[in-house]
Amino acid sequence: MRILIAAAGSRGDVAPYTGLGAGLREAGHDVALATTDAFAPLVREAGLEFRSLPTRPQGHGSVQGRRELMRAAAEFVTELGQGFADAVDEHTDLLVLSTTTAPLGTHVAEAMGIPALSAYLQPTAPTGDFPPTVMGTRSFGRLGNRVAGRFALRMADRVYTDAVTALRRRLDMAPLTPTETRRRRERAGRPVLHGFSTALVPRPSDWREGLDVVGNWWPYLAPDRRLPADVEEFLAAGARPVFVGFGSMAAGHGERLSELAVEALRSAGLRGIVQAGSAGLAVDADDVLTIGDLPHTLLFLRVAAVVHHAGAGTTAAALRAGAPSVPVPVTADQPFWAARLTSIGAGTDPIPFASLTARRLADALGRVVRQQAYARAASVAARQMATEDGVGAVLKALG
After folding, report:
1. 245 and 307 fall within a common domain
2. 59 with 157, same domain?
3. Given this model, what pLDDT does residue 64 score?
4. 63 vs 82: CA distance, rounded Å
């Protein structure tokens, strides 16, 4: 089968699909991944065909309020929609769509008569079990959570309205709003596979049939990939360090975060590895090593704890390694994932990015490293995650 996966957004929105694509390829399928040009190396390293989506994330790296985030998202998807159809050719047998691309790819699939499978990294369907991932962490009660979930879907529909209108016009299709499209799919009971672990988010008790939580799709890792020599030397030179990184978040905050991290680590009596990321963290010290892009799969097994922005991918990677977390959520769905870590005991109480200080971080590090309950909870989650087969679930869905 010739499969096209479409994913867009930050690195965390794309990298899991490289692992999914590689798994599908190993099962005998011909797989391409359509995403933005920045992630072409990730796609090709996984042995997948790269197809370009003509946009780049806007505003992902900065610290924004909800209104600014919504406006940036609308600009992002409108640009994305302009060229989405170009990535799909007549030889495609199946479209696999992410949370970000499904509201656009659904229309392309309809126009070209191609089946589509939704493969999401976040829970988006309303549930009474928890509030929507983009609306903070305070529960409104079961009924209130469901109402809030439906409101969040309508807000997402608004983000995609202009993009869908332009795309359907380009495809010579009758007008249809994102809300009408979504309701049609719900009435048809279309399946949605969710690529996160039940160890972190159990399948909601009130979801309809066809909405399944199947386990993570892990970013592709070459079998011969190893940590660099300088990292191995640093790891061997003392006690397990703490990892500190904010991924594609907090652009422009590098100097402040670097100073803060060093002060907190030394106050807690710990060594550290800081990842530059979009923030540009940089520390020159004997007890703190600065690194660039390295696979979390290899590094997190070797650290005492992980300080991170609580993106879905980093959250899952820390759990998979059995490493306890200090979550510092910045925006979007990060407070949700941070709260889930806390709820299962594998992370300290979240420290919102805007409230982060060296003292608060040092206090959290002292607890997470020295109170073994956090590591035990992370190890329990890791064992459960090891029993899940996210790629296998997608293969099963293909029939």
Report:
1. yes
2. yes
3. 53
4. 27
Q: Which residues contact 269 (CB under 8 A, 6 or more apart)?
A: none
- Boundaries of domain holding 381: 229-386
159 and 251 co-located in one domain: no
Q: Which amino acid is at 99?
A: T
| More confident: 59 or 159 | 159
Give yes or no: residues 172 and 248 share one domain: no
CA-to-CA distance for 282 and 176, rounded, in angstroms? 49
Domain count of the fold of the chain? 2
Which amino acid is present at 215? Answer: G
Question: Mind listing the pLDDT tens digit for each residue in 236-250?
Answer: 999 999 999 998 888
Residues 126 and 54 reside in one and the same domain: yes
Query: Could you give the CA distance from residue 104 to residue 87 in angstroms, rounded to a whole number?
Result: 12
List the beta bridge partners of residue 53.
Answer: none
Average pLDDT score over the chain: 93
Q: Are residues 233 and 184 in the same domain?
A: no
Measured in whole angstroms, how far is the alpha carbon of residue 357 from the centre of its chain?
Answer: 25
In a domain, residue 203? The reply is no
Length of the chain: 399
Query: Whole-model pTM?
Result: 0.93
pLDDT digits (tens, 9 = 90+) for 66-118: 677 677 777 888 888 877 888 898 899 999 999 999 999 999 999 999 999 99
